[in-house]
Write a structure and sequence with these properties.
Layout (H helix, E strand, L loop, with lengths): L8 E8 L4 E8 L4 E5 L5 H11 L2 E6 L5 H4 L2 H8 L3 E2 L6 H5 L1 H7 L19 E4 L2 E7 L8 E5 L4 E5 L2 E2 L2 E2 L9 H12 L7 E4 L5 E2 H7 L1 H4 L1
Parallel strand pairs: 3-4, 4-5, 9-12
Antiparallel strand pairs: 1-2, 2-3, 6-7, 7-8, 8-9, 10-11, 12-13
């Protein structure tokens, strides 16, 4: 029997906050270095998952500035002494406003976030041996980014595309037209075989969404 090679990338999902946001821990299976993507809250739960998986956290990556994705980033970064990478600087106003946003949901200890590094279209980020390309896909928020691993055909989509749905755009700064245009121009062309992990709900493939997502077939 031929032994199957181990994937270069490990992925674990830790649902956090009352919004059940898919905080994901991704790691290079060779180096065991990990990134925590969108730690919206429940920091003790995330830290427990890191210990259970047995990886070394090296960075926090943010897709955008909403509280359910970024609300735990400052606390986690300070506890682990790691940098916060992303999102695009257009979401600075959301990250600055996190304490006020938290109070709207009776969350009193949420802290503002100042990223170590902002991201822009075409940037590259890496965890261990595994690199990701950054795509700026606004509409849900102005500074929303996604992370694409071309060789592994894997996309961290945040709140852009979901299984049979797309991100909300009914905010004063949102734009449904911009979001749909970005998904069609930047994400769907990555390939039907690309598996994506959204910010909420189950994973899917871009091919399935291209064919059957009612927001993208209209």
């Amino acid at each position: 029997m031929t032994e199957q090679p181990q994937s270069p990338l490990g992925v674990a999902i830790v649902p956090v906050t009352p919004f059940q946001q898919n905080c994901s821990i991704i790691w290079c299976t060779r180096t065991k270095q990990a990134a925590i993507v969108d730690p919206g809250g429940d920091v003790p739960l995330i830290r427990g998952a890191l210990t259970e998986i047995g990886v070394t956290p090296a960075a926090i990556w943010l897709t955008h500035g909403h509280l359910d994705h970024a609300g735990g980033a400052t606390e986690l970064a300070e506890a682990l002494s790691i940098p916060i990478i992303g999102p695009h600087e257009a979401d600075k106003f959301l990250l600055d406003d996190l304490p006020t946003a938290g109070l709207r949901f009776d969350i009193r200890d949420m802290r503002a976030v100042t990223p170590t590094r902002w991201l822009a279209e075409g940037d590259e980020v890496a965890i261990g041996d595994v690199g990701f390309s950054v795509l700026h896909v606004p509409g849900h928020t102005p500074g929303h980014v996604t992370f694409f691993q071309r060789d592994l055909r894997f996309l961290l989509a945040g709140d852009t595309v979901f299984a049979s749905s797309v991100g909300r755009s009914d905010f004063p700064y949102g734009s449904h037209e911009t979001l749909i245009a970005g998904i069609k121009a930047k994400l769907l062309p990555l390939g039907d075989d690309v598996q994506f992990l959204p910010g909420h709900g189950p994973a899917g493939t871009l091919g399935e969404e291209r064919l059957n997502n009612p927001f993208l077939t209209a």
